[in-house]
């Protein structure tokens, strides 16, 4: 952790742990989806979320956890006690980072706004067709009952409470042939 003129430039615990986890994830052929260091009640949780094509198995989590525990013990990046968990981000995973949006282009997402839009709507099920990191915008298409993209819409990430992959299996089957132009 370094200090710079005009203030401190300090990495978060999650960022430090992500830097430690990335080489192991790469070695095991896993995608490091996210690292979260969160307090729930009196307990701190270090959650490392991994993914891979075809989904993550318990064996993948075990193959990551065993060597990563040793890496954490050697680096000792966390001063307080915590519970370490390794798992999948799940079907309804939240998109939080630029890479999340990039790898999910073409997927159906659920966007919830912080405040209702001009039509009083707060939640949208749309096709993700683009992401502008500089402007913090996502480009989407509204979908008709056949799963075809019908209208282009944009959402500012600053206005979004969250953006998650849409995990309704029934709709996913209906939208399997969705066309996002």
TrEMBL record:
Q: Which GO terms describe its cellular component?
A: cytosol
Q: Which Gene3D superfamilies match?
A: RimP-like superfamily, N-terminal (3.30.300.70)
Domain named Ribosome maturation factor RimP N-terminal: residues:
21-91
Q: Which UniProt keywords apply?
A: Cytoplasm, Ribosome biogenesis
Alphabetically, which GO biological process terms does the record hold?
ribosomal small subunit assembly; translation
Give the UniProt subcellular location, in the record's own words. Answer: Cytoplasm
Record-stated family: Belongs to the RimP family.
Query: What is the protein name given in its UniProt record?
Result: Ribosome maturation factor RimP
Q: What species is this protein from?
A: Ruminococcus albus
* The organism's taxonomic lineage, starting at the top: Bacteria, Bacillati, Bacillota, Clostridia, Eubacteriales
Task: Give the encoding gene's name.
Answer: rimP
């Amino acid at each position: 952790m370094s200090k710079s003129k005009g203030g401190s430039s300090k990495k978060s615990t999650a960022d430090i742990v992500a830097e430690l986890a990335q080489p192991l994830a790469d070695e095991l052929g896993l995608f490091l989806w996210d690292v979260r260091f969160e307090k729930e009640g009196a307990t701190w949780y270090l959650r490392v979320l991994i993914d891979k094509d075809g989904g993550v198995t318990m064996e993948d989590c075990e193959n990551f956890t065993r060597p990563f525990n040793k890496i954490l013990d050697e680096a000792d990046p966390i001063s307080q006690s915590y519970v370490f968990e390794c798992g999948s981000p799940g079907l309804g995973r939240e998109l939080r980072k630029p890479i999340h949006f990039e790898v999910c282009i073409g997927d159906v997402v659920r966007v919830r706004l912080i405040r209702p839009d001009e039509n009083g709507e707060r939640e949208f099920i749309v096709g993700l067709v683009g992401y502008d990191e500089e402007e913090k915008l996502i480009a989407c298409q509204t979908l008709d009952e056949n799963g075809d993209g019908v209208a282009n819409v944009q959402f500012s990430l600053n206005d979004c409470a969250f953006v998650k992959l849409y995990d309704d299996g029934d709709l996913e089957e209906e939208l399997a042939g969705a066309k996002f132009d």
